[in-house]
Amino acid sequence: QVQLVESGGGLVQPGGSLRLSCAASGSIRSINAMAWYRQAPGKQRKLVAAITKGGSTNYTDSVRGRFTISRDNAKNTVYLQMNSLKPEDTAVYYCNADVITAYTVTYHSYWGQGTQVTASS
């Protein structure tokens, strides 16, 4: 099995910054794409940013220019640097990764438990 553990969430003032981390562990053979999603109360879970193993990135329009996704393949870790946070960024942020384990021959999608991000005065 694979475990994804997010950290770095918290309560900040609008305009502040947070850096989320997500570390993958377990019987990992290879990780392809990694991504961050978020889900606000009463809303659907949506993609925030994604990054391929080679470093190509995609962002949802509302965070482009403010958020930066990055990864450290040697550490099986993906990061989300969030600057200029707005109240509308408030949500539970979930890490996602496509992983080949020691017991699978194709990529399977795994999710972290989520970390709360709140931007409020």
Describe this entry's structure for a reader.
- This protein has no helices and eleven strands.
- It starts with a strand and ends with a strand.
- It has strands at 2-7, 10-12, 18-26, 28-39, 46-51, 57-59, 67-72, 77-82, 91-101, 108-111, 115-119.
- It is mainly beta.
- A hairpin with a 6-residue loop joins strand 4 and strand 5.
Topology:
Layout: E1 2-7, E2 10-12, E3 18-26, E4 28-39, E5 46-51, E6 57-59, E7 67-72, E8 77-82, E9 91-101, E10 108-111, E11 115-119
Parallel strand pairs: 2-11
Antiparallel strand pairs: 1-3, 3-8, 4-5, 4-9, 5-6, 7-8, 9-10, 9-11
Unreliably modeled segments: none
Radius of gyration from the alpha-carbon trace, in angstroms = 14 Å
Oligomer: single chain
Chain-averaged pLDDT: 96
Biggest pleated-sheet summary: 7 strands, mixed
Can you count the beta strands?
A: 11
- Our estimate of the beta-strand percent is over 45%
- Secondary-structure element pattern, one letter each: EEEEEEEEEEE
